[in-house]
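S2.1 Query sequence (tRNA modification GTPase)
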Amino acid sequence: MNAMTAPPSSKKEIVDVGFAHRELVARLSPGGRYIDAQTDVDSPWVPFGDNAAIKHLAFDVRQGIFSNILWVKSPGTIGTHLHRGTIVMVCLEGSVRYLEYDWVASPGGLILEVPGESHTLVTEHPEGVKLFGWMQGPIDFFDENGKFVDTSDVWWFINHYETYCRENNIPINPKLYL
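Output structure tokens follow.
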């Protein structure tokens, strides 16, 4: 069995692949897009408590999916939370761990979380942590006694972003909505 390799190409131009449903895609798809996450051009840092901020990157209300960068600015904790959907995160800067596990994520590390698990996120890094996340479904937050506090889902994150934009006279970016 031969291993698949990338098809050879030296042609640096758009190639017509002849997709049969191109017109439907053009009419119905929101299309691909680029979100500049390095600057505040496409999305500002929105405060998330006293020591954290979120840069919202995408909202998909059809599937209950949202994407953002969570920045815990110095050593700190994001309280215990229960995931109702799948979470995929990449550590961009700093380091982070969950009290419930024995590993520490460092830059480039991939964190996978499945529905039904609860976690308490902690960073002890002097510069905190930045995590890129692609999340599906609601996240339930609990206080230190295990009492339910709030649910954050795609609608909560949209409200978080849009409220901040309105309060700070920042235009709401339609590129963030899939």
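Residues 154-167 form the longest helix (14 residues). The chain is about 10% helix and 40% strand.
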